[in-house]
UniProtKB/TrEMBL annotation:
Record's protein name: DinB superfamily protein
Domain DinB-like: 26-180
InterPro entries: DinB-like, DinB/YfiT-like
Pfam families given in the database record: DinB_2
Gene3D superfamilies reported for this sequence: dinb family like domain
Amino acid sequence: MRKKSNAITSTAFLAQLDQNLRQLLSTVQTELAPLELAQLNHKPAPTAWSILECLEHLNRYSRYYNPRFAQALAHARPSAEAEVRYSWVGRKFIEMIAPTNPKKAKAFGYMNPSGSQLDRETLTEFCAHQQQLLALLAQARHTDLNRKAVPVEFLKLLKLRLGETFELQVLHEQRHVQQALRVKAGLSDANRPETTDAAPSLLVASL
């Protein structure tokens, strides 16, 4: 994502989010979807999330935010090209959720999928949510992105601007897809058979 200090118009802003979202969807389809179900459900540690749990976490947020985006757009008035602006709270949320922020944030209980029974339907649902979000971004063209129109999931009395909430959603998804990719990267180590010092020659011969 871009630096918040740089001004950006609504058209360029939506185009950037669209590009980032398409890249994220392609990554999930090419890097994660081909994995076996056992790999998708592998947990690198007892308290860590599996790949499917990362995606289910995002699905739970999409179930809330995609309908709120649609509702906000249904009541939006046409607007001319304008610079996208951020509320103070929106900036803080974006800094917190950005994939470049190494600090972990604890998920609310009902958004924590740990221990859920998940299958490939989780992947299917995730991809469907992304297609919905792409359609919503397209619908948001010529819309006032600076209007406070989207209630925050955990504090519905607080509304964020439409544009900054779109960005928050994409950043959140990037963050957890990166987490899922790290789980995938560790699969080769997790599935590697244990070796002993009893037969070192076999290791050399297999290289």
